[in-house]
TrEMBL record:
Protein name according to UniProt: Histidine--tRNA ligase
Entry EC number(s): 6.1.1.21
Keyword Metal-binding: no
Organism: Brevundimonas naejangsanensis
Gene Ontology molecular functions: ATP binding; histidine-tRNA ligase activity
Amino acid sequence: MTDEASNRPEARAPRGFADRRGRDLTAERRIVARVSEVYERWGFEALETPAFEYADALGKFLPDADRPNEGVFALQDDDDQWVALRYDHTAPLARFAAQTWETLPKPFRRYAYGPVWRNEKPGPGRFREFWQCDADTVGSDRPEADAEIIAMGCEGLRAAGLAAGQAVIRVSNRKLFDGLFDAGGIADPVQRLTALRAVDKYDRLGVEGVRLLLGEGRLDESGDYTKGANLPASVIGAIEAFLASAETPGLSRAGVLDAVSGAALGAAGEEALKELAAVDRALTAMGVAQDDVRFDPTIVRGLEYYTGAVFEAELLLDTKDEKGRAVRFGSIGGGGRYDDLVSRFTGQSTPATGFSFGVSRLASALRAAGRGAEDATRGPVVAIVFSEDDMQHYLDAVSELRAAGIAAELYLGRAGMKAQMKYADRRGAPAAVILGGDEIAAGQVTIKDLDAGRARAAAIADNDAWKAERPGQQTVARDQLVAVVRSIIE
């Protein structure tokens, strides 16, 4: 190997970052456009915040260390201050609300979409850069504000392409566990957080796995041991009652509240029941079906800034990977009430609630469910080049198509006709425009309908028959170019 070759950089994308082509981008843009229309119809204003924030504004996600680069991508600015790529859209909203609160209409209702970055270990379906779409209300402590966000989330998921029964939003309230811990004498915040993390694994580990993590700990199949929360048996029993209510089939939202109301919940837990009952009344008034939104006390959400209602959107579609094997996507979004986030900046309690879903994740899930056909990118009409002498005719043709609003391109490589047709096929072109010497002399143009050609050619087994029929190809007067191409596209 020469020194020059050995010094060449390897062409590779960083781990956890992905290149995305037309199909993926088309799917995500379609989702964002449709969901944005829903949010605006519900009275939410678009807001775009910078990709970078000062690192202390994202404090929840930063460790207590000199270099704040765990969990986020951070760098030191020329004024020695740390800035970091946003981890989500909620922390930037809290900073914006605190910074501009005096000028904002209150409550402030905004939606946002765009990429977020997380400095975490990448894995299958887990990226360090991905798109999210959020909607939040800042400045309202009413349970109806939570209900509205939840109901709008349901409509947004429908607009994104999920029909009834293909997703469910599960709702709970963080105060249920706060009250349960208070009543059980659990004051240690680390012990509480360990217990909440155990409950958060219920869908993966089941009742027995969670019970072990609530107690002394759990040894998994690989031999790794996870230390438990060491809760008293009485508190573990109350949590297991929560789990049982989540498993009861056909239980209404009000029925779930009745099922958990018998536990020793303390003042905070009783407050949570009242708030959830108000959410249920508002959801029912807005016509939100019981199957679309369910109460589930096992929903705790992973972010520590939630203070009240929490919700998680779960995909119910059957999905498969590239090899046809069943795969479970699970959560595709979530949110909740975070009444203390803005006060980090102002010192004054400012209620807020919001919902976020992963645009990239939802697009992948729809594709895994066989719903990606509409996302296939439609390439431009391709004009075939035969001779340098006739370049003006080719340029006229593509210019005429573009002026009529039809995407068109002139082949600018140096290959022959067969390779050019293959190029048009790979581009997903609906048609190829052929202006050979005979067509030009006769004032005509040959148009090959590539979609029709592909479909009909698949049904013709004999090569001679295919050549004789020339499926999808027609020769028309030159002034009919736009009309014929438009008929093919439409």
